Amino acid sequence: QVHLVESGGGSVQAGGSLRLSCVASAYIYSSDCVGWFRQGPGKEREGVATITQGGGNTYASDSVKGRFTISQDSAKNTVYLQMDSLKPEDTGMYYCALRSDGYCDITPRLFNYWGQGTQVTVSS
What confidence tens digit (pLDDT) does each residue in 12-30 have? Predict the structure, then answer.
């Protein structure tokens, strides 16, 4: 069982930045995949970014590419999501999740472990 705890959310104005952290209760192996997801008001949960291979392989969705950066500190069992040039449409609850089956498809239902989420609100 792996517990994930997110932090770093808050309220910012458009154009601002936030850095989210996801701390895992156990070691994140190179074969594990950690993803960041978000769910805006009235919207389905959306995959934002993933990281695997100890940080050597990353993915970002088209909606955040060039603005969000996912990274990992293996020594701290922590994955970060640096969010720059934030837009009002980035508003939502942000979750980190982990899957340990050796794959890194960003489909939410394939992730085994989820954190409780951290709220991000971007005002115009």
Answer: 999 999 999 999 999 999 8
